[in-house]
Amino acid sequence: MEPSLPDKKEKYQKRKRSLCLGNEQNQESSQSQYVKKVMSEKTQKRENMKSNSIHLRLLTHTIVLFSLAQILALIVADRIRTLNEMSVTLTGGISLSMFLAYFAIGTILVLLLIKLYHGQALYRILFFLGLCSGLVTVFQMVFPLPISLFVSITFCVGLALLPIIWVHNIAIIISSAGIGALLGMQISWTVAAWLLLILSAYDVVAVYVTGHMVHMARAFIARQASFALIIPESWYGLYEQLGDVRPSGGFLVLGGGDLILPMFLSVAIAPINSNASIGVIVGSLVGLLLNHIVLMRWQRPIPALPMIAVGCLFGFLVGLGM
């Protein structure tokens, strides 16, 4: 028996409604997928903008502090030369082999310390001794030796009582400038250039092959005894305690060697060729910029000295030709 005309019409209407409902559901699903895609792209864009903002802030902060240390080292060296009537370098200075021997002995002793001693006091004592030696050199530009010693010790006591990142960074800038100026005056520019090359190669091996440089850095950071600039991701991080600092945990750490070794070359060549000295500083900043670009792409700690050294030597050669 054939269905009646009303039945056919009702079936047709049901089929039509079913198709419309299916189309609406497909359309809603497509719209939902499109909205999710747009939201995902917007979220990714915001994350990228936030990441770029953080990296720009880190780079700006690092360049400012690094530049201050380099310029202060030149000022200190010039002042010491003026006070002591020195025209080029100190006589009977440090040779390349002597410096490398001292460096090797120091590295071995530090590794033994890390292996055998698990406390904090000895690390802190070594840190403050090194810090104080650089501070005294700088403060002697203004005060007699007894007063310089008193001011330096007061500075160290203040940092011990108030271990905040911005206080630590100021102390590192001043002290590294003093150490860089004093040692830079006792070596020739050729020795300084060779040191940049040799210790850059050592830096790569110590980070990627043996790994002991990373181990040493973590040991000293954990004990609040790191002779390094600590750059937080946010400006508010400058007020954090040194005990809260963790490598790759929202902080960029620029080691003392990365700060001081460029000073050796700029200070050593300054009385011979001021353009070359300025070229060293500018080149080191370019190397620091390139290092930061690589750091952004790799997203893992890398040795900063090799690129800084390449920038220093390139700037040095450009300055010599001017």
Report a brief summary of the structure.
The chain has one domain (58-82, 98-320).
What labels would you give this structure?
3% strand; 76% helix; 322 residues; mainly alpha
Layout of helices and strands:
Elements: H1 5-84, H2 96-116, H3 121-139, H4 145-161, H5 165-184, H6 189-209, H7 212-222, E1 228-232, E2 251-255, H8 256-269, H9 274-298, H10 305-320
Antiparallel strand pairs: 1-2
Helix pairs in contact: 1-5, 1-8, 1-9, 3-4, 3-5, 5-8, 6-8, 6-10, 8-9, 8-10, 9-10
Name the quaternary structure: single chain
Which series of helices and strands comes N to C?
HHHHHHHEEHHH
- Number of separate structural domains: 1
What's the number of extended β-strand segments?
2
Describe the strand arrangement of the main beta sheet, using strand numbers: 1-2
Query: What is the CA–CA distance across the termini?
Result: 107 Å
